[in-house]
Design goal:
about 150 residues; alpha/beta; Rossmann fold; 6-stranded mixed beta sheet; globular
Amino acid sequence: MRVALDTNILAYAEGLGDEPRCSTALQLLDQLHGADVVLPAQTLGELSRVLTGKAKRTPTQTRDAVLGWADSFEVADSTWFAFQAALDLTVDHQLPMWDALILAVAAENHCRILLSEDFQNGFTWRGVTVVNPFVEPRAPLLAGLLRISN
């Protein structure tokens, strides 16, 4: 099962945020099968902004972190088709544009889950279900995936 990651998962894994979320993000990434994980390029752009702005990391540190994530997982580019779908999501579901683009890229890349805390937990669009990994009880879709991955 393919899984896309939103920026907040990567930011927590980088240590930005409260300890429980940072630990959960790291554990989650450790349990997922790397070949099934997709990073929409938009998430890496947003992570770069967060690391330089919020975390005050140097450009070199930020580049190293972003490239490290890109080395670990498949990066999916934003296509014009995904951008058009994102525009529709902003109109039809009132999603912010850049979140909508991440969801559209996840769908375009045949992901079943988008891990994020920025959407409505359980929202499904074009076969992609948004799962917030920080809420309990854990969503059955995510729990099943983690059992399969282990």
